[in-house]
Design a protein that fits this description.
The chain is an alpha/beta fold. The protein contains 13 helices and eight strands. The longest helix has 25 residues.
Length: 336
C-alpha cells in the first residue's frame, strides 16, 4: 500500500529475514516486510497491539510485530534493521512506556501514522507498580521525580519512583476496548478507502470484549476470597475492574527470589484471606511461585499476562487466554 516507499530498501528486506516475519505475523499469513505489500502495513510492538491490528484491520492489513513469540516484551532491544523496517510501514501501533527501545525507535522514525495505545485510555497508578523492569514511565513523572530528588532525601525519591503509571492496561477488557476504538479511528483516518470495514471489525471486536467483561463480572461476583497472589504486579487493572486484590510476590521482577520476611508475610496473608493459589506466568520462570507455594502449602497455576502467545499459552488468541485466566481465577478464589 505504501506507494511513496514502494522501492523497498535492501536493508528492510534483510530486516524481514532477520526478524523471521513469517512466524511473527501469525494471523496475517504474509511473510513480507512491513511496507512491502499492497495492504495497509502495520508494525505492532508486541502481542496485545498485534491482536488489535489484526482484528480491526482484517484482510486489509499486513501486520508484523517487533516482539517474537516467547520473548519477554519488557526486555526487547531493537536492531538497526528492525528500526529501518519500521520506517517502511504505513503505521506503527505501540504502548508507550512498556518498551523503551520501541519508544525511542518510534520517536526517530518517519512513519506517517504513530498510534500510542497509552493515549487511547487512562493509565492509572496502582501503587505497587515500580518502574517496570527499570523503565521510565512518562516524562512528566520523571521530571517530577528529579525535582523531588533535589528537594527531598534519596529515600523519598526512591519511594516516589515506585509509584509509576501501570502499563498493563490490556488485561482489563473494558480499557482494551477503549484502545480498540482509538486504533479503529486511526486506521480509518490513515486508510479511508477501507474505513467502513475497519469500523465494522472494531464493532465486532468490542462486542467480544464486552461479552468477556460480562463473563468476568458474573464469574467473579461471588467468591470465597478476593485476594490472589502473582509473580509480579501485572493484574492491577483486572483486579480493580472486578473488585479483587492483587498481591505481587516481588512487584518488579517476576524471577527474583522473595526474602524470608516476604515469604512469612505472604504465608500469614494466605491464611488470613483464604488464598489457595500462587499464580505464575508462561514467559518467565515458575521458581518463585513454587518456592512460596511449597513453603506456604499452596497450589500453583498460570495466570497469563498475555504479553505473548506461545505453545505454552492456554489458548491461541487474546480472548481464549483471557477465558482461561477467568477459569483459573474462579478456581483459585472459590467462585460460587
Amino acid at each position: 500500500m505504501n506507494v511513496r516507499r514502494r522501492n523497498i530498501s535492501g536493508i528492510a528486506v534483510t530486516a524481514a529475514a532477520a526478524l523471521g516475519l513469517g512466524t511473527l505475523s501469525a494471523c496475517s499469513g504474509d511473510s513480507a516486510a512491513a511496507g512491502n505489500t499492497d495492504k495497509f502495513d502495520v508494525v505492532a510492538s508486541f502481542y496485545p497491539m498485534q491482536y488489535l491490528a489484526e482484528q480491526i484491520g482484517g484482510d486489509h492489513v499486513n501486520v508484523t510485530t517487533l516482539t517474537e513469540p516467547g520473548q519477554e516484551p519488557h526486555d526487547l532491544e531493537l536492531s538497526a534493521k528492525q528500526t529501518a523496517q519500521m520506517g517502511e510501514a504505513d503505521a506503527v501501533l505501540y504502548l508507550k512506556s512498556l518498551q523503551p527501545a520501541v519508544d525511542e525507535a518510534v520517536g526517530q522514525s518517519d512513519v506517517k501514522t504513530k498510534i500510542d495505545a497509552a493515549t487511547l485510555t487512562k493509565l492509572e497508578d496502582h501503587g505497587n507498580v515500580e518502574h517496570d523492569h527499570g523503565h521510565d514511565h512518562g516524562g512528566e513523572e520523571h521530571a517530577a521525580e528529579e525535582h523531588s530528588e533535589e528537594a527531598h532525601s534519596e529515600e523519598a525519591h526512591s519511594e516516589e519512583e515506585e509509584h509509576a503509571l501501570d502499563p498493563h492496561v490490556w488485561l482489563d477488557p473494558v480499557k482494551y476496548a477503549e484502545i480498540a476504538e482509538g486504533v479503529a479511528s486511526a486506521f480509518e483516518k490513515a486508510d479511508p478507502d477501507n474505513a467502513a470495514d475497519y469500523r465494522k471489525n472494531a464493532d465486532a471486536l468490542t462486542t467480544k470484549l464486552a461479552d468477556l467483561n460480562t463473563a468476568f463480572e458474573d464469574g467473579l461476583a461471588n467468591t470465597d476470597t478476593k485476594v490472589f497472589f502473582t509473580n509480579h504486579a501485572a493484574f492491577g487493572y483486572l483486579a480493580e475492574r472486578y473488585g479483587l486484590t492483587q498481591e505481587a510476590i516481588n512487584g518488579l521482577d517476576p524471577e527474583s527470589e522473595p526474602s524470608p520476611a516476604r515469604i512469612k508475610e505472604l504465608q500469614d496473608e494466605a491464611k488470613a484471606d483464604g488464598v489457595t493459589t500462587v499464580f505464575y506466568e508462561t514467559l518467565v520462570s515458575d521458581k518463585t511461585a513454587k518456592t512460596l507455594a511449597k513453603d506456604a502449602g499452596l497450589k500453583t497455576d498460570v495466570l497469563d499476562p498475555l504479553e505473548g502467545i506461545t505453545e505454552k499459552s492456554k489458548g491461541d488468541d487474546y480472548i481464549a487466554v483471557m477465558e482461561s485466566n477467568l477459569k483459573a481465577l474462579e478456581a483459585a478464589l472459590g467462585a460460587k
